[in-house]
Amino acid sequence: MKVKKYIAAQVNPEYQESEFSWLGYDEILTENDIAIFGNRWYKEHTEGTTYGDIKESLDEAMDDFDLLTEEPESCYFDNLEDLINYHFKKSSGNYDADEFERWRKILADFDDEEKFIVAAAELMTGKKYEIITLRGCCQREWVECCKPVDSVDVDWLEGNYFNTGSEWICYMEPVEIEAGVELTADEVKELSENLDDSCSTYSVKWGDDEIMEDLANCIGCKVEDVIMIDYNENVIMENPAIVENIAA
Question: What pLDDT is attached to residue 247?
């Protein structure tokens, strides 16, 4: 009995590209309001982000707040509301009285820049923010970032940022093989030679089972219908006995 399978071949890691390469590094970060602080190995990205807007206004805003509090006659702003709306404009709508009071408190209690920025970002956008460290595989592969808590998955962000995931060519046309047969790498490559309809996908998962789920989602088939061939020409497929049971 023959069964239909879909082949997915791994791109050599030396040449693989993450979604950051496909969709654009700056575009992904800006679209998801993710600020990268940068360090000696990685460039900063804060422009166009809530973090960047707050950071740019912070020193001047603190000076104005101190003047408003201690020497109001010397301050450009007549009240806290005008000061906040000028330096930290809300992304949508207007601040209410409770929010202005929260602004007063975090300005008056300022003692930690990161803590202030997280609180200010929530007031400006209505979303909770976090400052976390992204890590790759090597000791120097790390960078801090500020992002909305409910934005992109951290594993996805780390894997794509440091390109530690794996890129796969997924063939969208099925091939027919005998149920219960394990294929060699040469057999899989021969089967894929005449397949034209394909697309690339990037997985940040590590285990074969989890990667296979991502590949199945890309192709639009069941997990048990995927045949993986990695860059070392190892063929990973469902246990032949399981395949036979499914076919039966």
Answer: 37
